[in-house]
Design brief:
Oligomer: single chain
Strand order of the largest sheet: 3-2-1-4-7-6-5
Number of helices: 25
Radius of gyration: 30 Å
Low-confidence stretches: 1-6
CATH class of the largest domain: Alpha Beta
Shape: elongated
Largest sheet: 7 strands, mixed
Helix content: 40-55%
Amino acid sequence: MSNTNTKNMNFKHVSYLWDEAKAAALAGDEVALFIYRSNLLGADLRLTNYGGGNTSVKITDKDPLTGASSEVMWIKGSGGDIGTLTKSGCAALYLDRLRNLENVYRGIEFEDEMVELFNHCIFDLASKAPSIDTPLHGFLPFKHIDHLHPDAAIAIAAAKDGAKITEELFDGEIGWVGWQRPGFDLGLQLRSCLEEAAKKGKKLRGIMLGSHGLFTWGDTAYESYINTLEVIEKCAEYLENNYGKKRPVFGGQKIESLPEADRKLKAAKVAPILRGFCSSERQMIGHYTDDARVLEFINSNDLSKLAPLGTSCPDHFLRTKISPLVLALDPNEDLSDVNAVKAKLAPAFEAYRAMYKDYYNACKKSNSPAMRDPNPVVILYPGVGMFTFAKDKTMARLASEYYINAVNVMKGAEAVSEYTSLPHQEAFDIEYWLLEEAKLQRMPKPKALSGRVAVITGSAGGIGKAIAKKFAQEGACVVINDINEERLETATAEFIKAFGKDAVASTLLNVTDETSTELALDQACLAFGGADIIVNNAGISISKSIAEHTLEEWDRLYNILVKGQFIVSKAGIEVMRKQGFGGDIVNIVSKNAVVAGPNNPGYGSAKAAQAHLTRLMAAELGADKIRVNTVNPDAVISDSNIWSGGWAEGRAKAYGITVEELPAYYAKRTLLNEIILPDDIANACFAFVGGFLNKSTGNALNVDGGVAMGFYR
């Protein structure tokens, strides 16, 4: 163990986060200290990626049945993340029972059956399911153990000369175990590595796992934490000292990136096309990044050599597939002719799918799960950036983060040696591992709007916010927007708190302005890869007689309601056509589109125009599988901008009542005697887009409590 005085050490490549006061408050509770240490390690993505790695502690506890003292190992449970680990996410096992499983272990071909036997070793009945890494920790004798996937260590672990570099860099204090899939056998190999070192008089402070990661340990939570930081810091420092030493990083730059604004614009325009190709099996959500580390790689001379090799660490290719697709597009490619761009890209996607099918067929076994989606997850566009596509935004973002990890690994390995990836069979055995398949089968059923992106205009309040909330609750990614910046900021914070950052994007939007609208749709494409649902909800209302109406008011009504619906729909249609798998447009109109009421010529006629524009669009867009429908609310008062600016006073005056009497008045005039709420309109919109009415277009759904004059005839 290192004797370095680290309390005052300034780490450069890792974050020292230990708080002595917090640790002191946990003194005597080794499990709490293990969880604290785990959270600190997981907080620094340079140490391990999300969900990657594992940590443990061994303690002596009282057996609840016999009262005897028993050695118990607490370890992160299956599927958890050390950065957010809590006690409920841990597994606790009798250590002697776990080690005694060696007596029934039948060899490497029977690894999977051992996982079920872990359950016979459970100490704490509230335990999370033990992970496949459990025996790796169990067969090492140390009290506190950290198993992480730091890029700096994996770069050495994935280098052709990794074993030699590890030996020389750490003067024999870090052992080496070559690649082996995680499981019982790897646990036995770790024990053997420790025993062999002891025979040579070496006391190890850690073990490097070829193409996998790093094991480190300590007698206390703090010692393990410091040991881990020191080892990773030394790996990172070694790499840094070698970058560009023998040759330029990644062989030097082959092309230059577009300026940032141009990159993002290019990415926004091509993302829906890529999403369409990647959604041939199921609808995917996209993520885009132009991170400097990505650009350095994709613009390099070595891209063509390294990209096809794929990733090394199991965590990486489980998220990113065996290799990325590199686009043969110029950074300045003209994307205006969508059909021409699709024709240019189609062969590349067909070739990738064929490659993946060949990979599957060459590596599959009699009991392998069925082949999964053959489309690429990672798409690299030199000069522009990286796109990732997955079933939801979180998975797409994580795939991006994992491929950046892979880029870091390739960069480091190439700087000190030569990068090596796992053989295809080894990669396949991880990707199609029956235990991984079992995890996938246990995943919850997708929600109705999973994989779909919705842009709802005027969604920072009232009806629009209710619609956006409903769609987010049903699994959609939502782009909320408003013309009022303060209102939008408040709504954005509310949505992020309720649904998380991955489910929400926000942008200012003036629906009467084509540039503003184009920017909003670009934001949807950058954030999620495209758009599938457009809800034209933004609106205003003015209640005046013809004599009182001004031309300015008339134009404002028609600009926001009619022209706004046209501009936003047109921009949305362009994105949907790029994707090529249809979509939905829902227009929030009104009972006033069909009912002639008093003091309402401007608003009522504009709403009628919206309703007929819906029918015209439906007639035109059927060939594109784009459904266009109308929801007609009436008297939705709650949290609605429509009741500001004198509208409520105008309607009350028209009916000869006070503003306070309006809600009851509107309810009484309906056949159902009901007050209509924003949530009622949201439910109607969901009925159109949620899979119930996939064969309905050009239709209208009244949500007004039953107003006989508004019945369609």
